[in-house]
Design brief:
52% of the residues lie in helices and 0% in strands. By secondary structure, the protein is mostly helical. It has a domain of 66 residues. The termini are far apart.
């Protein structure tokens, strides 16, 4: 009973305008990168921010629902940050949602 509610709640977050508060966040900061490697461009941020809905579905489904935008963001994060290479997909998706 809780999972459907959680999924609905997570999917409704971007509709409430929450995503706009993360526009200035760099791609490397959620993965514990040092400040020297967290300077991503705005194009990089767009890849990660576009994956928020997919990340919410992935987390809410405990990894069963995997969207193409999330997959692209995971690849991007791992290319940009060595610490992200050591984290699971679920850990990175949660970090992406915490931005």
């Amino acid at each position: 009973m809780i999972r459907p509610f959680l999924l609905l709640a997570l999917l409704s977050l971007p509709l409430a305008g929450v995503a706009s508060s993360f526009a200035g966040t760099s791609a490397g900061s959620a993965t514990g990168a040092s400040s020297g490697s967290s300077g991503s461009s705005s194009g990089d941020d767009k890849v990660v921010l576009a994956a928020r809905d997919d990340a919410a579905a992935f987390v809410a489904s405990d990894g069963q629902i995997r969207g193409a935008r999330l997959q692209a963001a995971l690849v991007h994060l791992r290319e940009q940050d060595a610490a992200a290479q050591q984290q699971s997909d679920l850990q990175l998706a949660r970090a992406l949602l915490a931005r």
